[in-house]
Amino acid sequence: MFKNFRQIGPIALSATMGFLLAAFLFIPKAYSSNQNVYKVLREKINVLQQIISYVNHFYFDSVDMDKVMDGAFHGLMEELDPHSTYIPAKEQENINELFKGKFQGIGIEFDILDGFITVISPVPDSPSDYVGLMPGDKIIAINGEDAYKITKDEVFKKLRGRKGTKVDVTISRIGTQKPFDVTIIRDNIPIYSVGAATMIDENTGYIFLRRFSATTTTEVKAALEKLQAQGMTRLLFDLRGNSGGFLEQAATVSDQFITSTDTLVYTIGKIKESNQVFSSNPKIGWDSFSLIVMINRGSASASEIVSGAVQDLDRGLVVGETSFGKGLVQRQLPLDSGAAVRVTIARYYTPSGRLIQRPYENGNDLAYYRELYETDRESKIDSLKELRPKYSTKAGRVVYGGGGITPDVYIPYKNTINGETGKVLRNAKRPIFNFASKFASTRPNEFHSFIKFRDTWEVSEKLFDDFLVHLEKDSIDVIQDSLRTNSDFIDNRIKSEIAGSVWGKDEAANIRLQLDNQVIESMKHFNEANAFLESLN
C-alpha cells in the first residue's frame, strides 16, 4: 500500500505544481491586490495533498487517479461559471476538428445499420463523393478485412488517415448483384457549418447554420451568392439549435448583412487583450434582400451575437423563441498533458449595449440548463420583462438584456408526432432512410427535376403501405393505426429521404421545411422584414 503511495506521490506533486503554476499564471493581478490569495492557495493545496494521500491509503478499492484528478479539474472550472470547463486530452482532438472545420479521411456521413457501415451521405467534394459512393451503400470490408459488426470507433481508426494515403473498401449496393471494390485516396474533409442552402420558393432563400467554425463566413458568403444567383430577394437565416463557436466568425457573419458603419459586438474583460470592438465594413454586406433570423432556446453565444446585431441595427426581423442567454466569451488554453481549459475571459455586448447572459448560480449548472426545458419558459420570461434592463435599437425600438435575445415575433415550435412515429424516427435501424434510398435506387430514370418533384410528386397510399411492410420485415414493432394518424409527417420524411438520395442534403432539407411550423409562420412576416430593408435604402 505504501509502495502504491510512493508511486502516486509524484502525481500528487505534479498536480500540486500544476495548481501553483495556474495560480501564478491566471491571477497575478488578484495576488498583487490581495496579499491573502497566496496564503489561501497554499492552504488549499495542502488540503488537496492530504485528501489524495488519504484516498490512496484508506479507500477500500483501487483508485483511477487520472479519472479522480480529471474530476477535480472539472469541479474547479465549474465553480467559475457554467461555460468555463476542463477538457481532457482524449476529447480535445475531436473538438479541434469540429472548430477548425476539417479533418482527413474519406468523407462520409455513416451509421452502423444491420451490422454494416452504411453510407448516409457522402460529404460533397470529398474522396467518397469523387468515387461515386451513394446513400445506402454498405461497406462490407476494409482493406480486405470483414467489416461486419464493426464499431464506430473502429470505423474512425480504419477510414480516417493522412492525406494522400489510400484505403480499399468493398461496397454492397442496392440493385447491384455482386459487391465491388473501390480504392479511395484520403484527403482533407471539410466539416460544414452550413447545413442547408436552398430556395423555398422562387423568391425566398433559406440557410441553416449549424455552428460557427473557422470556415463559417466563407460558407455563408458562398451560400448567399448561390441563392442570389437563383433569384433570392428575401432570406430565412436559421440559427435554431446553433450553440455557437468562434466570436470572430460571429462578427464576420453579422457583417454579411450590415451595410452601414456600426459596432457589431464588443467585449469587456479583466485583461487588455479581452477588450475588443468588432465593427462592420459597409463594403462587405448585402442590402439586396430582406432578412428574417430564426432562433430558439438552443441558439447560443455566436448565434446570439448575429441575431442581436441584426435586431439592434434594425437590419431584419428576429423570430422564434427566446435564445439561450450566453453572453460570456471563452478562450481555450492548452495544458502540457494535451488537455485544455476553456476559461471565460470577457462578457460580450450587442450594439445597443445589451449583455444577454442569463443569471446563474456558481456550481449549480443543473438548474442553469434545466431552466431551458421548462414548458412555460416563454411566459415566465415575458412576465419578467419589466424587470429586465431596456435598451434601444438604432431606430429606437425597445429591446431587452439580461436573458437571451427576445424575438420580435414569438413563434413556438409545435411537435405534432405521436409516440409511435417517434419510435420509428429514433430507431437505430433508420427504417425511413433505408426504405427511401432503396426506392430511389430502383428508379434511376424516374426523378429528373427537383422542382417538379417538390411541387407535384406525392407518396402514394401503396408506397405508405409498402413502408409499413418494410417495418414488419425489419422487426420494428409499431401500432400501425398510430402511424397512419401521422401519415402526412411520415410521407414528408420518406419524400425528403428520396430527395436526399437523388439530389443531396439541400434538397432533403427543402422537403422537410414544408412541414416546419416555425418556417411556415415566419414566411408570413416578410412584410415587416421588408420594412427594415426599405428604411435602409
Q: Any overview of this molecule?
A:
By secondary structure, the protein is α+β, with helices and mostly antiparallel strands. The protein has 4 domains: 2-63, no CATH class; 102-190, Pdz3 Domain (Roll); 194-413, 2-enoyl-CoA Hydratase, Chain A, domain 1 (Alpha-Beta Complex), CATH 3.90.226.10; 419-519, no CATH class. Strands 3, 4, 5, 6, 7 and 8 form a 6-stranded antiparallel β-sheet that branches. A 6-stranded mixed β-sheet has the order 10-11-12-15-16-21. Strands 1, 13, 14, 17 and 18 form a 5-stranded antiparallel β-sheet that branches. Strand 17 (328-334) and strand 18 form a beta hairpin. Helix 8 (216-229) runs parallel beside helix 9 (247-255) and helix 18 runs antiparallel to helix 19 (505-512). The termini are far apart.
Task: Itemize the secondary structure elements and their pairings.
Elements: H1 2-26, H2 28-33, H3 36-58, H4 65-78, E1 85-87, H5 89-100, E2 102-105, E3 108-113, E4 116-122, H6 127-130, E5 138-142, E6 145-146, H7 152-159, E7 166-172, E8 180-185, E9 187-190, E10 194-199, E11 204-209, H8 216-229, E12 234-238, H9 247-255, E13 263-269, E14 276-279, E15 290-295, H10 302-312, E16 317-320, E17 328-334, E18 340-349, H11 365-370, H12 377-383, E19 390-392, E20 398-400, E21 409-410, H13 419-426, H14 431-441, H15 450-456, H16 461-473, H17 480-485, H18 487-502, H19 505-512, H20 517-522, H21 526-536
Parallel strand pairs: 11-12, 12-15, 15-16, 16-21
Antiparallel strand pairs: 1-18, 2-9, 3-4, 4-5, 5-6, 5-7, 7-8, 10-11, 13-14, 13-18, 17-18, 19-20
Helix pairs in contact: 1-3, 8-9, 9-10, 14-18, 18-19
